[in-house]
Amino acid sequence: MRKRWLFTFIGLLFLALYTMSSNTHLMMDLLEKRSKVSSAFGADRSRYGDLYYMCFLPQYKSSNRLLENIKPDSVFDKKREINLYAICNSYLLSFIQTPKVFAGVKKYWQERALNPQSPVLDTTQKNILLLQVTERSVMMFLYADRIIKNFKPHAPQGPSDTLKYINKYEIPPFPLKEQIFSPRLNEALEFNLFDYRFITPVKELKATINHKFFGRISPGVVISPDNKYLFLSSTVKKSAISSSFYPLSDAQINKLIASFNKLYTHYKEVVGFDEVYLSIIPNPVTIVAPEMDTYNNLLPRIQQNPDLKVPTIDVYEKFKQARQPIYQYADTHWNNRGLNLWLEEVNKKLINN
């Protein structure tokens, strides 16, 4: 009888763990709360950088990642009749906390490229669409038809139906299948079972021994030549299409150009945006260590292509000339300096509208 109760208890425990790990909304809340816990049962996942978390090399563990209290260099209080919409990724979703960082923007809306959302397009005001993507993810914009299908702004249906600013990124409801069988289930289970601060020293010791004595690190990361940065391996390895060194053909570039042009024409002529801008954020390795291989010149080949119809917000040259670090040492994102350099270029466009 005792064995039956024990097996029942274990079964219910694993069922509860599985159910909790399958719920993306719950896991996001749990991650945020446990990251703020200072005890041994807190989590380090978002504390020291996503690349540190992949390899646990202690020399890249820094509490000052220029992520705390994110503040823009400039704040604009004067508003004009401009609404800014951003189809973007975590470079904006995790950093933009107020529309005041954008010059003259009255309201701001942001969402991921392939998530099904339908914001309100207030035709009584000027509406600007920003297509923001990182260099490693630019190929997702080959799916222009899918983006068009998902992102369908509609006219207000009444006085209360207006553009709502998303201050904090909100995860849209997932289909029932993904709620039951989460595509990130293994990652969530690992977090719930093993991501506790009291286990971190053991992980760091193992990582140090493997690196120092066997020359091995996590296959997901690559160390920069000067040993200062961790890079996402898929942005460095030549065989990965998201790599800065992947040999992109002219045909692939032309397909991207055609897809961007299709989006530009659709959102200006069909949907009714007053302007559409494209901004591609360079991979960290593109700026920090281009000598690691032969750069495929994706950014200039797109942004300087005479066939590209979309006006660009180009930070490639500006980032190359930066004298101080603009990317985090152990994370895939930029730091406050990188954000503010980008905002300078965005606001130049907005001020002229």
Q: Secondary-structure map with pairings?
A:
Elements: H1 2-22, H2 24-36, H3 50-55, E1 79-88, H4 90-93, E2 104-112, E3 126-134, H5 144-150, H6 176-180, H7 185-194, H8 200-214, E4 221-223, E5 230-232, H9 250-271, E6 275-281, H10 284-288, H11 298-303, H12 316-320, H13 336-351
Parallel strand pairs: 1-2, 1-3, 3-6
Antiparallel strand pairs: 4-5
Helix pairs in contact: 1-7, 5-9
Quick structural overview:
The chain has 353 residues and is α/β, with parallel strands linked by helices. It folds into two domains: 2-63 and 180-214, no CATH class; 79-168 and 239-351, 3-Layer(aba) Sandwich (Rossmann fold), CATH 3.40.50. Helices cover 38% and strands 12% of the residues.
